[in-house]
Specification:
CATH topology of the largest domain: Nucleotidyltransferase, domain 5
Number of domains: 3
CATH architecture of the largest domain: 2-Layer Sandwich
Helix content: 25-40%
Distance between the termini: 113 Å
Structural class: alpha/beta
CATH class of the largest domain: Alpha Beta
Number of helices: 18
Mean pLDDT: 84
Low-confidence stretches: 515-527, 542-549
């Protein structure tokens, strides 16, 4: 009877609130040891479920003890571990210690799926239920989504998203399998949650994952390795897990594949299967930090006086799942180089032309090629007629030859940009693959590399993998398609380019010339008559500004 009255909602394994406990001397000693050492606490009091032996003490591996020390001593930690290495188990054991011995703390357990997060919380709850009663805190709330203890500590479980912990204040944020969170969600999460992370002086962030392409986890990991952020990186090799040896490796590869083994157990940052760019080349691509970054615009090189630049742009409708993007290429010499990138999922099509225009002017009046399948036609039209930008690249249809590029000053009825047809995409992807793999195009932008790692074959074409984006890749293959065009070769030739600019200037002057000559009356009035090629005689018009105007 007394047992039931002391239990939380009839659960004999949980203590209700408001119960006093007289600690024995041994319990005080143990409590002190556990409080000071998470490793001691886990080894002696945490129970886990073994597939072979049921509920057993947590016998930690050496690398797991190292993980605990790293988490305990540092605010920001990131772990790259192979599959089935007990990574979640060791984290929840540490989190259990944290909420027990740190009153009034709040912990967020976030995973790529809400069911996964709740499963993690469930395993923590199981470990809690098997603690001795004298070590437990009284239970205020106990369900699948959250725990609240009598000492004021709380644990929340949810899917990783920008809204998961918005508005709250958290002492520990645990991101499980962060590499499997869709890139757009991961980006939005960090943009939203970063103020929360930095609001406290002691907030901990623990990121744990097996690699899954070149995404936000990849970026955080590389930045950590190179000292560009505050995360302490820890990598565990599959051979550090007891029972895994060369024979185990061979058997695993035989039952899966070598590429899968390399990704899941060797922890290589490989992209999706069947990518446009070969995995070997993707592994060689490395991004660098922009020299300047502001409001979606990343600069890797400032404009050079004598360099020639081209911009390719992909226009979105301004929804959060799709990005308007453009890339700036230095095409002065081979290898070509991406020197700037703009990418934003909130900018409206009405404002996008102004952004392109600003950057194009800065990069030596760069040539601009806009994809005009959809809303892009409006963007190109605004560039041409409202902003009066001359260096727009047009593409006119030439029968079986398909679209052929020309300058925006060439006249005619050519569309203000290029339409992405099946032929354009096929040729563009083929050229892009060749340019990148032959080292004729330098790409050092994170978003470009990330999207290339998930740009895969689907049916007879290439598309972004499920949950991924390909907005910058569209800019890349449009550029690559254009690079084979005669007009492209003309604008990269300085002599030809000077001739083209001269012809452009002549055309503009002819369009603006009046039918007669107008003089100011102060210069020599003895201007002879002129006869044009059709025999028409033109007389000079002489005005005296002092009397005629």
């Amino acid at each position: 009877m007394s047992t039931d009255s002391n239990a939380y909602l009839g659960n004999p394994n949980l203590k209700r609130t408001g119960l006093a406990h007289n600690f024995t001397k041994d319990e005080i000693v143990e409590y002190q040891k556990c409080s000071e050492s998470p490793i001691y606490f886990i080894k002696n009091y945490v129970r886990i479920v073994s597939l072979d032996h049921g509920l057993v003490p947590f016998d930690m591996y050496n690398f797991q003890e190292g993980m605990v020390d790293t988490m305990h001593e540092n605010r920001f930690t990131i772990f790259k571990l192979p599959r089935q290495s007990g990574k979640s188990t060791i984290i929840i054991s540490y989190l259990l210690h944290y909420v027990l011995f740190n009153p009034n703390t709040t912990v967020a357990v976030l995973a790529n799926k809400s069911t996964t997060a709740r499963d993690i919380l469930g395993r923590l709850q199981l470990a809690y239920e098997n603690l001795p009663k004298w070590m437990q805190q009284g239970i205020i709330a106990w369900n699948k989504g959250n725990i609240e203890l009598e000492n004021g500590s709380k644990i929340l479980a949810a899917a990783t998203s920008s809204s998961a912990i918005r508005g709250g204040s958290y002492n520990v944020i645990f991101l499980d399998e962060f590499a499997f969170v869709p890139t757009n969600v991961a980006d939005q999460f960090f943009a939203s949650v970063y103020p929360t992370i930095t609001s406290g002086q002691n907030t901990k962030v623990i990121i744990v994952s097996t690699p899954h392409g070149m995404n936000q986890f990849y970026k955080l990991w590389v930045d950590a390795e190179e000292g560009r952020n505050n995360y302490i990186p820890t990598e565990v090799h599959w051979s550090e897990v007891p029972g895994r040896d060369a024979a185990w490796k061979e058997e695993t590869i035989r039952n899966t594949s070598e590429s899968q083994f390399n990704s899941e157990f060797e922890c290589e940052f490989l992209g999706s299967i069947d990518t446009l760019i070969s995995p070997a080349k993707l592994k060689q691509l490395t991004y660098r930090t922009p020299i300047r970054s502001n409001s979606g615009l990343d600069l890797y090189e400032m404009p050079l006086e004598k360099s020639t630049y081209i911009i390719t742009a992909d226009v979105a409708r301004g929804t959060q799942n799709d990005y308007s993007a453009f890339l700036v290429f230095d095409i002065t010499t081979i290898p070509y180089k991406v020197v700037a990138k703009y990418r934003d999922n909130e900018i409206k099509p009405l404002l996008f032309p102004t952004k392109i225009h600003e950057v194009a002017k800065a990069y030596n009046q760069a040539f601009v090629m806009i994809e005009v399948n959809d809303i892009g036609e409006q963007v190109a039209s605004t560039m041409q007629f409202d902003l009066e930008y001359d260096n727009l690249i047009m593409a006119s249809m030439r029968g079986r030859a398909g679209q052929v590029l020309g300058g925006g000053f060439s006249g005619g009825r050519a569309p203000l940009g290029v339409r992405t047809t099946k032929a354009v995409k096929k040729i563009g992807c083929s050229n892009l693959k060749q340019l990148v793999e032959d080292n004729k195009l330098i790409i050092e932008d994170y978003d470009c590399i990330n999207e290339l790692s998930t740009f895969i074959i689907k049916g007879s074409s290439f598309q972004a993998d499920d949950g991924c984006n390909d907005d910058t890749v569209a800019c890349l293959f449009l550029f690559s398609w254009a690079s084979d065009q005669t007009y492209f070769k003309e604008i990269t030739d300085n002599d030809i380019r000077r001739t083209m600019m001269s012809e452009q200037q002549d055309m503009l002057e002819q369009d603006m010339a009046p039918f007669g000559f107008v003089v100011n009356g102060l210069e020599d009035d003895n201007i002879g008559e002129m006869v044009d090629e059709y025999g028409t005689r033109w007389s000079p018009v002489v005005r005296d500004y002092r009397t005629d105007w």
